[in-house]
Design goal:
Length: about 400
């Protein structure tokens, strides 16, 4: 079937429409005809032959000298699967009024297409791509590396734009002082631990409160980080994220930033974060986590000593770590029925009585933590009791 046949077979197209498209020298007339013809092709159920003929027409329209005609084509077929891939790429490199509709909406671009356009296409095209409904990690990484601030902020404001942790850190490297960026990052549904750590150091007081409430970081954590007591705050952040949030990612981040210290590992272990402790040993020793787990839990003191030494931890602290691991195992066997919070409280109590020769700073920290947790529990019980009393009174 020829391109001429597909035009004349559509009842909703008049002879005047076809004459306007083929013969009119008036760009406005051709643009109106282009819009109508594209709408007809988009609505119709096309056979394979019809589809090829329709794409011939589209290629012809994409060559029109009038910007108005090419814009009519781009706007009308911006979400259409009928637009050929090569034409979509051609329109993406056209003038801004033509390129923006397809860059923002067309489903025909691959991630690699979009990443290339971000690298070479300039700010307006970057912003158009950033406004797409969804973005992959490939595209957001290209934006993080090459995009102007406005494009990056728009992408960060979209929870359907997926960022790798590396991509998000690159955003912070380039635009970490931007208050607008701070706001949109705080309002994302989820943030990597490393980004929360970086943000809590730089955002305003109001955004810090929002970060604490939306990303499960305790007020104590925020205050401690801002006051530069980062080691203690990192363990508190691990608590807030949950013991199984991403212990491997957290351990890796702390190692590459030079903050995976013996003191931090001991404090985390004494708080029951055994999975974080395993991953920390694995990161420092270079031994896979599965083997590290066996050496910590199934190979006795000799296995623990072997992985401990390979991790390069201080020999003078080994007995403290050994007793902390044994305390964890004993309490897990005795009181496995306890909820995680009470288990952690009991573990700290047992650790403080059985490992009195731990470093003084770590013991002080654990005493402070135990006192804070017990006060919080008393307040919670008082609130629950008061609530029960009010309920009975109302009844």
């Amino acid at each position: 079937m020829t391109a001429g046949n597909i035009l004349t077979q559509r009842a909703s197209l008049s002879d005047l429409d076809i004459q306007r498209l083929v013969r009119s020298e008036n760009a406005d007339d051709r643009a109106v005809a282009t819009h109508k013809i594209c709408r007809v092709m988009e609505r119709g159920g096309l056979s394979e032959g019809d589809r090829r003929a329709a794409q011939e027409i589209i290629r012809m329209l994409a060559q029109d000298a009038a910007e108005l005609v090419r814009r009519a084509l781009a706007v009308t077929l911006r979400t259409s699967e009928l637009l050929p891939h090569d034409v979509a790429l051609k329109l993406a490199q056209d003038v801004i009024t033509v390129s923006v509709p397809v860059l923002t909406h067309s489903p025909l671009f691959t991630d690699e297409d979009l990443a290339d356009i971000i690298r070479s296409g300039g700010p307006v095209r970057q912003i158009a791509i950033a406004k797409r409904e969804t973005l992959s990690e490939v595209v957001t990484l290209s934006l993080a590396d090459n995009g102007v601030e406005e494009a990056v902020v728009i992408a960060c404001a979209n929870d359907n734009a997926r960022f790798s942790e590396g991509g998000m850190n690159r955003v912070m490297d380039r635009f970490g002082t931007s208050e607008v960026l701070h706001s949109v990052l705080v309002n994302r549904k989820t943030l990597p631990v490393s980004i929360s750590e970086r943000l809590v150091n730089v955002v305003s007081a109001a955004l810090r409160e929002q970060l604490i409430s939306q990303h499960a970081i305790s007020p104590e954590t925020a205050v401690e980080i801002v006051n530069a007591t980062q080691e203690r705050a990192t363990v508190d952040m691990a608590d807030q994220a949950g013991a199984s949030f991403d212990p491997q990612g957290l351990a890796h981040h702390l190692m590459i930033s030079g903050r995976l210290t013996p003191s931090l590992m001991l404090r985390a272990l004494a708080r029951g974060h055994i999975s974080f402790f395993e991953h920390a040993l694995a990161e420092l020793s270079g031994v896979p986590h599965e083997r590290t787990w066996l050496m910590v839990h199934d190979a006795g003191a000799l296995g623990l000593r072997a992985i401990y030494d390979r991790a390069g931890l201080p020999a003078r602290m080994f007995q403290t770590f050994r007793m902390a691991v044994e305390t964890f195992h004993m309490l897990q066997a005795e009181a496995g029925h306890l909820d995680p919070v009470r288990m952690q409280e009991r573990l700290i109590e047992r650790f403080l009585t059985q490992v009195p020769f731990a470093p003084r700073e770590d013991l002080i920290y654990l005493y402070e933590r135990l006192d804070r947790d017990s006060k919080g529990r008393r307040w919670q019980r008082a609130a629950e009791t008061a609530g029960d009393g009010l309920t009975r009174t109302a009844a």
